[in-house]
Design goal:
Shape: globular
CATH architecture of the largest domain: Beta Barrel
Number of strands: 11
Number of helices: 3
Strand order of the largest sheet: 1-2-5-4-3-6
Mean pLDDT: 93
């Protein structure tokens, strides 16, 4: 379980996608600290299991289902990714409950700067949009967000710099 509060911006070191599955390596100093094989790390909001660890990077296997439902398979080397370690049961909880199980992909159709934030409008398929509720929570690329407005085809949300 995650909170949707991004701990670190990491970078794709390596990505291999073949027919039906793949694996990727992500460089991230903070998430590597006290990390063990089998730990769960959210990479752009997708819960992945650590399969290999080096001093400053982690490797993950990615299933066909995950590649189909997320944008992980579209990533390229050196691209930034949002990283978060699984929340500790005795730690602070600052966002929303984020499972890391991805339901699907939306499309950003508008981006408008606001005073101290950026307002995004996102469209999604009817299968997904029916679960979007005004003032409800959603995680996009792992960021815990609150829905500002929604209708039958799109929703808006605000992202602050921090």
């Amino acid at each position: 379980m995650f909170t949707g509060i991004i701990e670190e911006i990491g970078y794709i070191e390596d990505i291999n996608v073949t027919r039906g599955s793949g694996n990727l390596a992500v460089r991230g100093e903070l998430v590597c600290q006290d990390c063990h094989l089998g730990d769960s790390i959210a990479v752009n909001g997708v819960c992945l299991t650590v399969t290999d660890i080096s001093a400053s990077s982690l490797r993950f296997d990615v299933s066909a289902e995950t590649l189909e439902r997320s944008t992980l398979g579209l990533l390229q080397r050196q691209e930034p990714v949002n990283l978060e370690r699984a929340m500790a049961a005795n730690g602070r909880f600052g966002g929303h409950f984020v499972s890391g199980h991805i339901d699907g992909i939306g499309t950003i159709v508008a981006r408008k700067p606001d005073a101290n934030a950026t307002i995004f409008t996102v469209t999604a398929s009817p299968d997904l949009i029916r679960y979007v509720v005004e003032k409800g929570s959603i995680a996009i690329d792992g960021i815990s967000l609150t829905i500002a407005n929604c209708n039958s085809t799109s929703f808006t949300l605000s992202i602050i710099p921090h």
